[in-house]
Structure formats: C-alpha cells, structure tokens
C-alpha cells in the first residue's frame, strides 16, 4: 500500500540544518496495524505528517497505492488526502461549539457527497465509536475520551484506506485510553490500515508491528516489543 524510500527531512535551525529524518525506508501493507515509538524529538510526528501528506519530505520517494504522491499538488493533493487518509491527533482538533454531528461532517464538505449519503456515513461512524446518543451535543460539553471518539468518527467519515494517529491516547485517563484502543483495534479488524505514533509501550502493543525511531532513524526494537523489526 505504502512505500517510502530514502525519505529525508531537513529543517533550518540556528546552526544551519537539522536532520529530522535521515534516509527512512518503510513499507506498509494494506490491513496492517503499525505502531511507531521513540523518544521526544526523534521525528515521529514529522514522519506521520509526511505519511499523511501534511508535510513534504526534503528528498526521497513516496508511493501510495502506486501513486507517486510527491507529484501531486494543490487541489489534487488535497483531494487525494481527504479521500484516502484519516487523522487523529492527541489534542482532538475539534471545533468546540459545533455539535458532534457537525464536527464529523466537516471532511465531507469537501466531497461531492449527497445529503442522504452524508447521513448514512455520519450514523455509521457514530455507531462505530458508540456516540450516536451524543450526535446533537456541542463537543465542548464532552469528556476527553468522548472528544477523541468524535475525532475518530471524523477520521473515518470519508471511508479512508489509511488511519494515522499521533499519540491518540496521550491526553486520556486509563479507562478512556482502553476504549480508544479497542476502537482502533476493531477498525483494523474491519480492514483499515492504521499507523499509530506513541510514547507509551503499553499502547504500542496493540500494533501488530512496532518500529522505533531514534534521532530520525530506525533503531533496534526494544525487548518488550512483540515483533522484532528494524527499518
Ligand atoms: N518545521 C520545523 N521547524 C523546525 N524544527 C522542526 C520542525 N519540525 C520538526 N522539527 C524538529 O524536528 C525534531 C523532531 O520533531 P517531531 O515533532 O517529529 O518529534 P516527535 O518524535 O514527534 O516528538 P514528540 O514525542 O515530543 O512529539 C524536533 O527536534 C523538532 O524540534
Ligand atoms: Mg510528536
């Protein structure tokens, strides 16, 4: 599904250039559940944002279902991203005063999706996260765990092939964390490909494969990982 080859990312800093990612290779098959771990500053979010077409690498190749996505730009890039990739962030990124339903419908505004189809998808997504009863509630009234469920519903609303999650349980208590992880697990069982970034070894364990970044490079996977893989 996804092939990254020799991906680098450099950003300017006070001493010249900082190598945030150094020659990253990565293949992801359809249906995988991949966890990416690593210390703060190791480049996890940068890599996830590149995977999600939110950021551009400095060099390297990125194929997504055979499409050379580095050649896309402007509207075609936005369309590709909106239809194929869903995002979940640590800080939810919801619009506080809009209802649950309105929030999850946002990504559909940029598609040619009719009213009936919108309704069908919204109901299906809310059912998948168990929040149908909160559809009309402004998200400002929800708990952290509920907000993250709304964010997950929004991430799947356009029925993307790939879900990207950056520390999705980072702001949640233990019970909500469990809930959120179970939802990701069930989405994966239904065929969604998932890439999740986390500091938390316990959270990483729900992935079927665990990779670790250190200083912008793949490093040997620590002993607690269930699959031993290096990049
Ligand atoms: N646009 C940018 N401009 C300057 N520096 C950047 C930029 N993007 C990332 N960096 C730097 O790149 C490094 C990696 O950042 P990144 O956010 O990918 O780390 P991370 O592994 O996600 O860390 P955390 O676990 O704290 O979220 C950091 O040193 C960061 O300061
Ligand atoms: Mg990060």
UniProtKB/TrEMBL annotation:
* Superkingdom, natural source: Bacteria
Q: Does the keyword Transcription regulation apply?
A: no
| Cellular-component GO terms for this entry | membrane protein complex; plasma membrane
Stored SUPFAM superfamilies: P-loop containing nucleoside triphosphate hydrolases
GO terms (molecular function) for this protein are: ATP binding; ATP hydrolysis activity; transmembrane transporter activity
Q: Which InterPro entries match?
A: AAA+_ATPase, ABC_transporter-like_ATP-bd, ABC_transporter-like_CS, ABC_transpr_LolD-like, MacB-like_ATP-bd, P-loop_NTPase
- The protein's name: Macrolide ABC transporter ATP-binding protein
